[in-house]
Amino acid sequence: MKRLILAALLAASAAGAVQADDALKAVIAGEHRATNAARDGARHPYETLTFFGIKPTMTVVELVPGGGWYTEILAPYLRDKGKYIAAGQAPEKKGAQALRAKLDANPALYGKAVTAVFEPPSRYEIAPAGSADMVLTFRNLHNWVGNGEAALQTTFKEIHKVLKPGGVLGVVEHRLPAAMQQDEKASSGYMHEAYVIKMAESAGFKLAGKSEVNANPKDTANHEKGVWTLPPVLANKDKDREKYMAIGESDRMTLKFVKQ
Questions:
Q1: Cis peptide bond N-terminal to 120, omega within 30
Q2: Which of 15, 50, 81, 106 is at 20 to 30 A from 198, Cα to Cα?
Q3: What is the pTM of this model?
Q4: What is the mean pLDDT of each run of 10 residues along the chain (260 residues)?
Q5: DSSP readout, 177-206?
Q6: Domain locations in the chain?
């Protein structure tokens, strides 16, 4: 009898996982993503989010959502059973207002999304302590390095604070080859993977896994205008455009950390 019950529980769990996967795939394939879906081949949202272990019942914080590329996936996916928190600029700033307008324009998809303030090194009004299952950041760490190492460590500690025990920090960042020097401000936009791991672990996280889903071996990380030389920015405009389009978007680390 115990074996039958266990088998039933495992089957139910597997069925739930399949349904969650199907729901995530459905959101990613949604018509509301008609424009942003063009970059799925470089950003691999399904593979990235499943690697981090996302579930539709989670409370998930996205740090610096920008124009809302991942918001279009996370907010609808978490709408009914979970909670999505977009933590970025203060409400009075243009970026925050643009994101708010995007959310308000489609309440059927984004009506339950919550906004919060995350402006390192001074404002960390993200979420109550111990309330989040997952915090995600996509290609943002290099922007925080210029605040200094002590401030960067504080940022990681503030992220650590809002997570539940066992909560996940998912990081995607432009990756600098170990043989190349990372300056104090990460001015190229690229960072050493070992440095990111070191800073996260110094704040109380444990590295739980790495994925190469966002790797790009064509990217040498040695470009005239840093990572912004590559698409989608193409900082050199038409100069060597074909060359950089052939390289594609940057080589990226994808790291999963767990709160100890």
A1: no
A2: 50
A3: 0.92
A4: 40 52 96 95 98 98 97 98 98 97 96 97 98 98 96 98 98 98 97 98 98 98 97 97 98 97
A5: -TTSPP-TT-TTS-EEHHHHHHHHHHTTEE
A6: 2-259
